[in-house]
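Notes to self after the Tuesday call (sharing in case useful).
The group wants a holo model before anyone commits to mutagenesis around the pocket. I volunteered. Ligand is magnesium ion. Logging inputs and output together so the record is complete.
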Amino acid sequence: MGGCVALVVAAGRGQRFGGEIPKQYRSLGGQSIIRRTLDVFLDHPGVDGVRVVIHPDDAPLYAEATKGQDVLEPSFGGATRQDSVRLGLESLTAMGPDLVLVHDAARPLVDPEIISRVLKALESSPAAIAALPVSDTLKSTTRELVTGTVDREGLWRAQTPQGFRYREILEAHRSLAGASLTDDAAVAEQAGLSVGIVMGSEENLKVTTEDDLRRAGHLFDRGDYRTGFGFDVHRFCTGDHVMLCGVSVPCDAGLEGHSDADVGLHALTDAILGAIGAGDIGSHFPPDDDRWRDAASEIFLGRAGDLVAARGGRIVNLDVTLICERPKIGPHRAAMVHQIAEILGLAPEVVNVKATTTERLGFTGRNEGIAAQAVASIRLPDIA
Ligand code: MG
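Result:
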């Protein structure tokens, strides 16, 4: 096939981390660390495929974490990181990529620019890694006493991704199987390959301890927070069900509208569009356009979600209030939350649906229709 495959190493058990779940499956801002890491590589134009090396025991965790992501089948790792990478490389022989980028699953804040820099360096070198120059003064010690100062000139801290020409790193790993080297550049060095170095970033930290997880959380939460509000009303007509928040709810009436009249999803779509300054549902889906006649409103919501993603944004949370005397919302609430989360690829924890009546006052109180209000909170990337 040629091209470039990202080999993401997630086979570690993370004993250093303590908790029950290996660290790469822990949550960072509502999504697992590994899912966030994979998204960066899946979205990078220089990467043609992404394979994850996992621990066999983690197969169910992995399946859940990567649901809907366009990744290759995972391969199983070995007893050490070095074994795991070698087995991952072996799993790519049939595919035969030109280049491979080895990356730690526990580095979710890798910048696409770093990936680009590694790929660029691979044009002139068989291996290239992201790293940071050491800026702290280094001390050697014995028994908590300083014995000397180490010259930091020319010292770098290695990160990932580490990129290689595939055939060369595969051969290197085969010939050094069983040696205990802590990164793949060391394998390349031992095999006599020249290894280029490009600038990594402080943000590209490896989540190893609870402290790292907190630090990653703070970095991840930086940004420009926006709020949007949406409101919509649809009138009752004859029918036997209404669409509310993507769920068909049995009712002694229907809702009138050009599309499926899903008042909940319309309010929500407007809230999201409002938060990112992208107009309203009518400007994106004109009601006089026949394409949207009887359309499923999840199309509208999905499009709003795509616009958020195109701006590099992230939906922080969503809240919808349905206002009606009938039908009863309670029994369908969980299904509605699930639907909205599914359409937008969100964790259900960040979606809330609630309902109220207006005490028989006003048009909703007179059972003439259903109203919905929604609020969306969205994080956009830092303004540069
Ligand atoms: Mg509407």
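Two things stood out.
Residues 232, 234, 257, 263, 266 surround magnesium ion (CB under 6 Å).
DSSP finds twelve helices and 18 strands in the chain.
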